[in-house]
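Hey, I'm writing a tutorial for new members on how sequence and structure tokens pair up, and I'd like a real worked example in the thread rather than a made-up one. If someone can provide the structure for the chain below, I'll link this post from the tutorial.
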Amino acid sequence: KESATSDDVVRATFQAHVMLHMLRELEGTLSSSNIEAAVAESSKCTHALYDDFKQLANSKGWMMGETLLNPG
């Protein structure tokens, strides 16, 4: 989205990573309902874990500022 911030981009990437791991666990049993459940669960996990992820990333020296992640 044009109005996305760098934090929006990082959060979306984090959620995609979480969802990918969930889907890999379902390999061989994928169905539309499993995928929908993984999307919902990854959203919940992202909400619960994202702030801790950002704090850990910052403590490790990761730079995720506007100048480095320009979504536009």
